[in-house]
Design goal:
Helices cover 37% and strands 22% of the residues. The chain contains 16 helices and 23 strands. The protein has helices spanning 2-23, 36-46, 147-155, 336-342, 359-376, 379-393, 395-421, 433-446, 455-459, 461-473, 497-512, 519-536, 541-565, 576-589, 594-597, 613-628; strands at 48-50, 56-58, 80-82, 89-93, 97-102, 107-117, 123-125, 140-143, 159-160, 164-166, 172-180, 185-192, 201-210, 213-214, 217-224, 242-251, 254-255, 259-263, 272-284, 288-292, 298-306, 313-320, 327-333. Strand 4 and strand 5 (97-102) form a beta hairpin. Helix 1 (2-23) runs parallel beside helix 12, helix 7 (395-421) packs across helix 8 (433-446) and helix 11 packs antiparallel against helix 12 (519-536).
Length: 629
């Protein structure tokens, strides 16, 4: 049974390795990783040039040289009344973000996070491909009943309320206005917070009015989302960009219970639509999220995959009953505590994919890790201290496992003696069932359990998987250094030093543990350090530090358990032939039955000499004399 459990564990890890290596999803491409032909074609068709923000944008027009505006056919010839005279960018800066808007369409060109940097050392860009793929930019307006008017608004030059804005303590509002001679009036307003949990939130308010009255609007979010890590191996869990929502969606005309939904770009059907009451809806990737918080009002979202190969991006349109009125958008990191602080009632923290099952373990681990970091100030040391705490908790399980393995080691000679007596029988022979009965009787007599050596250690595996999930998903570890060459705990050790030391510690730890004489079991146990070392070569260095620290503590616990239990007591069992000779020797030396020799008391006498008859006669004579008197 113990051998089967070990074999099942090894096979499970092998399946995981093979899946991640050959079947798993491809690595995430670098932000702005667009083919030259694609950029060239798009740039020529739209006359795009790179801006200071790094985003491809239409070439700036001078005064009097406005970009071509397609006027809706049903409006005749119109002239701008309130508009801008040239193409320009408006930069909004706070402590947390740097946002760049274009007055063409009053849409978003760039949203950079100042507290996070990419591999090149620049701020993380959440809108990496604005205007490149021929899709609308984020916050573009969609007039639901008039596609021509939608195109017209995308190309119109809005007049901004400010040229640039830097926020320090007070909120700020950026307003774009546009009017023409046909009676069209458009207004878009963006409200920003300077800092705090809502520093990553921008509220959008928009209205479009024509001669026919107010128009029904939707708001579009263009291809997203940036901030992916391009150097992440397939051996590490990596969440690709995709659609995400949480709320009560309609199904067959009925409003279902609130649930979290995730859709990969390759699984999005053309024009896939979800309708219901959503706490949040948007797109996310491994570390970042762009989502709207509609406040559970009735609405719908249309998802579309955009150039899924190689970009894996998602675009969506939002339609709500109230239109585009003070819609808050969150554009920032998937920090668990931050998401809870933004709007506790919207369940925004569910966007952090800790797993539906492991989340029960991951969330307390995450909170404990952040609490320790508040005192230590370094996540590497925080991981080590948390590992020490975890190993203190699981010490009873480890101790029980070692004691059980020690007991099984002591019973190995007797087990092999039983197996030797039935070695001549075939496996299918019914008589061989008696061997299993004798083995189970041996276990029962000595209070041993073949699974008790592995089962306690298997109970610690959920903690390992939960820690793996935590260290893979926690954005707090992104870019956090530890010591010396480890500059980022969320990626692999660049020199593979810690995984090799971890593998050596596993080998040393196994040599300290009591082992049986089963060759198959020994091979499996020796294979596990090699397998773990290979798997952890590309694992996040924070996870390797956890496993290495756990091994070092395990070695100390093993030495302590060995000292408490003392040296193993190996039982010496004589071969069957030797026992038969010993029994025949005893029977030939003592031909008198036991009952006859001891007067019927059932115990063999230790003196095999002649009986003491004189003593018995003396007693009889004494009794005779007494009767005579």
């Amino acid at each position: 049974m113990e051998r089967r459990v070990l074999l099942a564990v090894v096979l499970s890890f092998l399946v995981l390795i093979l899946y991640q290596q050959w079947i798993g999803p491809p690595p995430v491409p670098t932000d702005r990783q667009v083919s030259e032909s694609e950029v060239g074609t798009t740039a020529e068709s739209e006359n795009l040039t790179p801006t200071q923000s790094g985003v491809l944008e239409p070439a700036a027009a001078t005064v009097g040289q406005l970009p071509q505006v397609v006027t809706p056919s049903n409006r005749g010839i119109v002239e701008p009344v309130v508009s801008d005279t040239q193409l320009r960018e408006v930069v909004i800066e706070t402590e947390l973000i740097r946002a760049v808007f274009s007055n063409r369409g009053a849409s978003l060109l760039s949203w950079q996070l100042k507290e996070y940097v990419d591999d090149a050392g620049a701020f993380v860009e959440l809108v990496p491909l604005a205007g490149v793929l021929g899709q609308p930019n984020p916050f573009s307006l969609v007039v639901r009943e008039d596609p021509e008017l939608t195109s017209y608004l995308d190309s119109a030059l809005f007049r901004p309320s400010v040229e640039n804005m830097t926020l320090t303590s007070e909120p700020g509002v950026l307003v774009f206005d546009y009017e023409d001679s046909s009676g069209l009036r458009v207004r878009k307003a963006y409200t920003f917070q300077p800092a705090g949990p809502r520093g990553y939130v921008v509220s959008v308010d928009a209205s479009v009015t024509t001669a026919a009255g107010s128009q029904s609007l939707a708001i579009a979010w263009g291809p997203a989302l940036g901030g992916a890590r391009p150097d992440t191996s397939r051996m590490v869990f990596q969440q690709l960009p995709g659609a995400v929502y949480y709320g009560r969606a309609f199904e067959d005309g009925l409003l279902q219970e609130a649930e979290l939904g995730r859709i990969a770009p390759e699984d999005i059907v053309e024009g896939q639509r979800y309708e219901g009451q959503f706490d949040f809806v948007g797109v996310d990737n491994h570390y970042f999220l762009a989502a709207v918080l509609p406040g559970r009002q009735q609405g719908s979202v249309n998802y579309r995959a955009v150039s899924a190969d190689p970009h894996n991006l998602v675009q969506f349109d939002l339609i709500f009953e109230t239109g585009v009125e003070e819609l808050p958008f969150f554009l920032g990191p998937k920090d668990f505590d931050l998401l809870n602080s933004v709007d506790p009632e919207r369940n925004l923290s569910r966007a952090v994919d800790f797993g539906s099952i492991l989340g029960v373990i991951v969330v307390p681990l995450h909170q404990t890790l952040k609490g320790i970091h508040g005192f230590v100030g370094n996540y590497g040391w925080s991981i080590i201290l948390l590992t020490v705490f975890i190993n203190i908790l699981i010490f009873p399980l480890r101790h029980k496992s070692v004691v059980s393995m020690r007991k099984m080691q002591e019973l190995q000679p007797e087990m092999k003696a039983i197996q030797a007596r039935y070695a001549h029988l075939k496996t299918t022979d019914p008589a061989k069932q008696k061997m299993n009965q004798e083995v189970m009787e041996l276990y029962r007599r000595h209070g041993a359990n073949p699974a008790s050596g592995c089962l306690p250690m298997l109970l610690t595996m959920p903690i390992l998987f939960a820690f793996y999930r935590l260290l893979s998903m926690a954005v707090e570890l992104r870019g956090e250094p530890f010591l010396f060459w480890i500059s980022d705990l969320s990626v692999k050790d660049p020199f593979f030093v810690t995984p090799v030391i971890m593998g050596a510690s596993m080998v040393f730890q196994q040599r300290l543990q009591p082992s049986g004489a089963d060759p198959m079991q020994q091979k499996i146990m020796m294979l596990m350090p090699v397998m773990f070392t290979f798997m952890f070569l590309w694992a996040p260095s924070g996870l390797v530090i956890y496993w290495l620290t756990s091994n070092v503590i395990g070695i100390g616990q093993q030495l302590l358990t060995n000292r408490i239990a003392g040296p193993p007591r190996i039982r010496q069992v004589r071969p069957p032939a030797e026992r038969q000779v010993a029994e025949s020797t005893v029977s030939s030396a003592d031909p008198v039955p036991a009952k006859q020799a001891d007067g019927g008391e059932g115990q063999r006498t230790r003196d095999f000499g002649p009986p003491q008859k004189s003593g018995r006669r003396g007693k009889k004579s004494g009794r005779s004399k007494g009767k005579a008197r």
